[in-house]
Structures are given as structure tokens and as C-alpha cells.
Design a protein that fits this description.
The two termini are 27 Å apart. The protein is of the alpha+beta class and 257 residues long. The longest helix has 23 residues. The strands form 2 sheets. The chain has a 6-stranded antiparallel barrel with strand order 3-8-5-6-11-10. It has a 5-stranded antiparallel beta sheet with strand order 1-2-9-4-7.
């Protein structure tokens, strides 16, 4: 399974679109008229496609493809206002992240996602704000029976995506589908069991934040797996962009990455 050239360049294209939007918004003072309407439309689309997935009306791959379109049209400035990003940023930056370089904070999207009490209900959209310290990582990992999508809202990241080719008890065979070294505000990536199941994000700068959405246990008959961490420091090279990597624990991943 591979990503098309169009998919591979969407991160770079997203950067340019986001930069243009942010510059324009600064110039007009972010009036709430048309932009506010755009945010409401964006929220409805986000809720609708996630409800469709949760109810089994679409597949994880279809959700992923629609999320690529939705994230590509995100009114970033208004989204940050709605979730009170400045306040959340201050709260996260006060956390002690010595053991792990990442921190996730539940957020509510009015009328869309309400799971903000630390619970992660099945087949329901869960939204979070993620922070990664400069030079640290969201470690390379895959999932089972879940989907997620990340949108960069601050800083810039090195984003690597992989298709999971084979899942063994002690390791995983993966093929790299994307290696974007400078993914800035407005860029995004998504994963499902069917496309780019493994991701690895590294913070290139200070104040690296991601808006994330995910749904767990979307196919009730299949096994659910949260993070399946792998060690990509010295994987066995099997062919062009194809590797066999050892599985590691959450604690090992936090120590390494």
C-alpha cells in the first residue's frame, strides 16, 4: 500500500495555504462574519463524518480521506480562538514533561466532541491538543482498530508516515510513505488501519502543538490496540523504504524518544 504523489505533497501545500490564511486574517482583524460561518461549517463536517464512521456507515479509510479534505480547509485562527488555545498552551507548558516529551490535553468542540473527562468512549470522536517539546517526539507507533488525524496549529514538525506491512509478536514490518521534514502550521496527516497506519512526529521548534481527532474501536468485532511502539533507530532494512523494527514498551519509547 502506498500514498500517491498528491497525498505526499499535501503537507507542503498545506503550509503555504495556512501561511496565506494567517497573514490575511492578521490584516483584516479576523472578523467573525464569513470566517465564523466557515468554522461552523467545518465543525458540522467534522461531526458528521465522525458520526458516520461511529455508526458503521463509512470505513476508516473513507473517514481518513474526508478528514484530509476537512483539515485542508481548517480556519486555523478561528479554531484556536474557539478552543482558547492561549490558555491551554499556558496550562500545558507548566507541566513537568521530563519523562516524556509529549503531553495531551482533552478539549471540547462545542456540538461535536464532549469526551473531556479523561474517558475515551468507543466509536465517538475524541479531540485533544497535543504538545511536543523541541527535539522530542511522538514516538513511532502504529494502532489497531482506530483512526486519528493530526493538524499542526503551532511550530513545525518532522512528520514520517509508514504503511504497516506485517505485524509480528516481536516486531513490525513497515514501508515509509512520507518523510516531510518541515511540516508547519496548517499541515496535517491522518492514519487508519488501511493507509499510513504508523506515524512518527518530531518537534523541530519551540511551541509545537497539534490539534488531534481520533475514534477508538470503530469495528467492534476486531481487536483494539492503542499504541504499538516500535524502535526505528536501527531497524533492519528489507528493501527500498522498507524496514523491520522491534516492538518496545511505552516506557522504553518515552526513554528513547
Amino acid at each position: 500500500m502506498s500514498i500517491s504523489r498528491r497525498d505526499a505533497i499535501k503537507i507542503s501545500a498545506g503550509s503555504l495555504l495556512a501561511a496565506s490564511f494567517l497573514n490575511h486574517a492578521a490584516g483584516i482583524g479576523c472578523a467573525m462574519g464569513p470566517i465564523g460561518d466557515k468554522l461552523e461549517s467545518w465543525k458540522r463536517r467534522l461531526g458528521d463524518v465522525s458520526n458516520q464512521l461511529g455508526q458503521g456507515q463509512i470505513s476508516g479509510l473513507q473517514w481518513q480521506e474526508e478528514m484530509d479534505r476537512i483539515y485542508g480547509e481548517t480556519p486555523v485562527v478561528e479554531l484556536l480562538k474557539m478552543i482558547r488555545f492561549d490558555d491551554l498552551q499556558d496550562s500545558i507548558l507548566k507541566q513537568d514533561l521530563q519523562e516524556s516529551g509529549e503531553h495531551f490535553l482533552d478539549i471540547a468542540i462545542p456540538g461535536v466532541a464532549d469526551a473531556v473527562d479523561g474517558s475515551e468512549p468507543d466509536q465517538v470522536l475524541i479531540s485533544k491538543l497535543a504538545y511536543v517539546q523541541k527535539g522530542r517526539h511522538i514516538p513511532p507507533h502504529g494502532h489497531g482498530n482506530m483512526v486519528s488525524a493530526f493538524l499542526c496549529v503551532s511550530g513545525d514538525f518532522h512528520v514520517q508516515l509508514f504503511d504497516k506491512i506485517e505485524d509480528r509478536e516481536d516486531g513490525m514490518v513497515v514501508r515509509q510513505t512520507l518523510n516531510e521534514k518541515r511540516a508547519a502550521v496548517g499541515t496535517w496527516s491522518s492514519i487508519s488501519d488501511y493507509k499510513s497506519n504508523v506515524h512518527w512526529l518530531t518537534a523541530n521548534s519551540d511551541n509545537c502543538f497539534l490539534f488531534t481527532c481520533k475514534l477508538n474501536r470503530i469495528e467492534p468485532e476486531r481487536k483494539f490496540q492503542g499504541r504499538i511502539n516500535i524502535d526505528m533507530r536501527t531497524p533492519q532494512v528489507l528493501g527500498p523504504d522498507t524496514y523491520r523494527a522491534k516492538k518496545i514498551s511505552f516506557r522504553q519509547a518515552a526513554e528513547i524518544y
